[in-house]
């Protein structure tokens, strides 16, 4: 097969039989793995690569012949009646859902050597991303079974896509923490394989420069999640169990679960086959826009168009100003945040046709304008959000837009890169990610009637951020806005320097005035009413320079540590009714 596919160069420097036979066998073991892990095998990979490399060399625009327009979708306003209704519908629907986390990446780009899901979402409670995600899914599972009459509690399946880089460490994080309270049988890890690298425009496979018996490989991208789910057999098991939705999300967005209930409510109400979570996007902002593309031949698709392609595409199709803000002050094309909700039935139908293959792209770095040779080997890549490209025109593909403060705070840039971001643009760093959690929680409490002091501006690692009161709660305390309003009453106030950590489900804030740090822990059957005036020296943020190697990496990349000067901490380990009146 390799010889037929023009890969004879792989064998050029092989010695005669009897020499290096073990290494030669290992070579074919690798070829067999590369062949079986790719839909259609290596021959299909090489053929696709040749087509895409020829298009790339010719400078062919993948959107030629397409005209963009604004697709249909729902724009939600946090806390209004329709938002609350969508949230309730979403929670009810949760027992028919499965969650898929794509977590194949390490934190190197962040200046962190571990897996990204092990990073703390915020430092007040120290909860890591993976724990927060699992506790959110468990809380949704409980809330959903409470809403559905007479239904027995259903376990929500949770799949994590890992890679060679993250698999062992993800498993270790789960096992050493008893799966953060989830039943281990609920969690499935699917490991994505890498794909072969390509040396030139005729798609000759690249040999590892250190070992002629090894083909060089690189990651294929998170689009692999679709073929892995298809080949795992899980999708049909889910369908037999009566599930209806698959929710995909990425590894370090600490706000995502605040948006998920309402977004699933939109999917269920609008009966969307595909629902992309989106945020308002400024024109030309460096985030992909969701657009409907209509081809001259009648084909249509609703798809993420990368920001550097959207503006030229609009200019080329009768929009002389390109990507501009409309009367709302934002681009009419919402910003894609790579969180998808797919309806399971149509999803299985589509994958049965495609085998889970997602339309790929290639991004070679050429040595010069002749485009004849590469600076380094390239490979085919695919993205999870390109799934709708192959859907029939009858597919219902929509989006749900929510405020950025509620839904989107990715952590992906290291301190140096974040400090170079132009003022007013998002930092997307560990610093801004933590501050975004406090801001969202403070704004939600404010909307629920709590008097929350305005934030102050502070600089950490060269980034100026708004510092709100450090408010954080466990998902089981409140998943939706209605949950928050049911747990807060009377006249409550929180000063800017305060910290509030809520670890328990039945904790009620009644006429609480907080100026300092308050930590409440309670077991499920303890009902705790918290009120009165709590005043102490509180917890203080102290600057840490990211170059200071004496501090742990997860602290350095934030630029601060918390000095816990003074707090009121109460723990209720027994069932019963309790009152904390300070």
From TrEMBL:
Reaction(s) the record says it catalyses: a monosaccharide 1-phosphate + UTP + H(+) = a UDP-monosaccharide + diphosphate
Identification of the protein by name: UTP-monosaccharide-1-phosphate uridylyltransferase
A Pfam family recorded for this sequence: UDPGP
Stored PANTHER family: UDP- GLUCOSE PYROPHOSPHORYLASE, UDP-SUGAR PYROPHOSPHORYLASE
Family: Belongs to the USP family.
Keywords from the named record: Nucleotidyltransferase, Transferase
Uppermost EC category: transferase
Gene Ontology biological-process annotations: UDP-N-acetylglucosamine biosynthetic process
Cofactor field: Mg(2+); Mn(2+)
Taxonomy of the source species: Eukaryota, Viridiplantae, Streptophyta, Embryophyta, Tracheophyta
